[in-house]
Amino acid sequence: MSYHDLPEDIRTIALTDPLVQADVIDLILGLEVRHGGGVALMVCDSLDRGIQPVVVDDIPDTADVSGFRALLDLLLPVVGEAGGSVLIGRGRRRSLVPTDRDRAWHQCAIEACRRHRVRLLGFHLATPQGVEALPDVVSEAS
């Protein structure tokens, strides 16, 4: 699938379906941004509908997670105040196989969302080969 498959009423539907999430990430993380190592956040309202994409480009593959943490700590308090959620994508040049660095960024997003009481709808890798979701957050053992 691709962003060409997004429903026409995308602004009115919740971004909770994994296929729709991947299409949204495909739309906001274009090929050039993926090559540049960009990160995208789709800020969503209290009903999980996308309201504003935020894209940061030209992040080196070797970038430490601290800059991403700072971005999340700046943005997520506002999202949390509104009862919103966020969908996140990380662009890379190649391979949809997650690296340790990808997993660190994912964990950073999980922790920041928890800290700011924001629902993390999903975290995706986006490369020229496609968009792939990282596994959902594992809930506490029952």
Structural features, described:
The protein is of the alpha+beta class and 142 residues long. The chain is built from four helices and five strands, in the order H-H-E-E-H-E-H-E-E. It has one domain (11-133): Cytidine Deaminase, domain 2 (3-Layer(aba) Sandwich), CATH 3.40.140.10. Helix content is 35%, strand content 23%. The chain has a five-stranded mixed sheet, with helices on both faces. Helix 3 runs parallel beside helix 4 (100-115). The longest helix is centred in the middle third of the chain and has 17 residues, at 65-81.
Q: Summarize model confidence as the mean pLDDT.
A: 88
Element-level helix/strand string: HHEEHEHEE
Radius of gyration: 14 Å
* CATH architecture assignment: 3-Layer(aba) Sandwich
The helix-and-strand class reads alpha+beta
Number of E strands: 5
Which strand order do you get reading across the main beta sheet?
A: 2-1-3-4-5
- How many H/I helices? 4
Shape: globular
Q: Stretches where pLDDT falls below 50 for ≥5 residues?
A: none
Percent of residues in helices comes to 25-40%
Strand content: 15-25%
Distance between the termini: 35 Å
State the CATH superfamily name: Cytidine Deaminase, domain 2
CATH third-level topology: Cytidine Deaminase, domain 2
The multimeric state of the shown protein is single chain
Overall CATH class: Alpha Beta
Q: Biggest sheet, in brief?
A: 5 strands, mixed
